[in-house]
């Protein structure tokens, strides 16, 4: 992934997609990176806030620890999930 910064926590999951998905984890997710490879906006729903990732943009930041993330998408994206094991 281009432009992905080093963050605290260990990489726990990595996945690609082109449609909406909710992922649940047995660990606390502490940071994540999403690369929007498509032509449409992606919405990252963290429960306490929503983030829009525009085409060709990268979201890569720490988040309030939680065990579930929702990505609302209709086009290609890549995601790295980090947490404390």
Walk me through the structure.
This protein is mainly β and 85 residues long. It is 0% helix and 65% strand. The chain contains no helices and six strands. It has strands at residues 10-17, 21-36, 42-45, 50-53, 58-72, 77-84. A six-stranded antiparallel beta sheet has the order 1-6-2-5-3-4, with no helix packed on it. It starts with 9 loop residues before the first strand and ends with a strand. The model has no long low-confidence stretch (mean pLDDT 92).
Keyphrases for this structure?
globular; 85 residues; six-stranded antiparallel beta sheet; mainly beta
SSE class:
mainly beta
Q: How far from one another are the termini?
A: 23 Å
Counted up, domains total 1
Shape: globular
Mean pLDDT: 92
H/E series: EEEEEE
- Summarize the amount of helix as a percent range: under 10%
Instruction: Please report the number of helical segments.
Output: 0
**Poorly predicted runs:** none
Please render the helix and strand layout as text.
Elements lengths: L9 E8 L3 E16 L5 E4 L4 E4 L4 E15 L4 E8 L1
Antiparallel strand pairs: 1-6, 2-5, 2-6, 3-4, 3-5
Short characterization:
This protein has about 80 residues and is an all-beta fold.
């Amino acid at each position: 992934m281009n432009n992905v910064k080093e963050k605290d926590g260990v990489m726990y999951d990595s996945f690609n997609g082109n449609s909406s998905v909710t992922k649940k984890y047995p660990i606390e997710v502490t940071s994540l990176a999403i690369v929007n490879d498509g032509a449409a906006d992606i919405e990252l729903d963290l429960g306490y806030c929503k983030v829009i990732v525009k085409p060709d943009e990268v979201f890569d930041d720490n988040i309030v620890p939680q065990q579930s993330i929702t990505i609302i998408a209709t086009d290609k994206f890549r995601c790295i999930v980090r947490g404390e094991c």
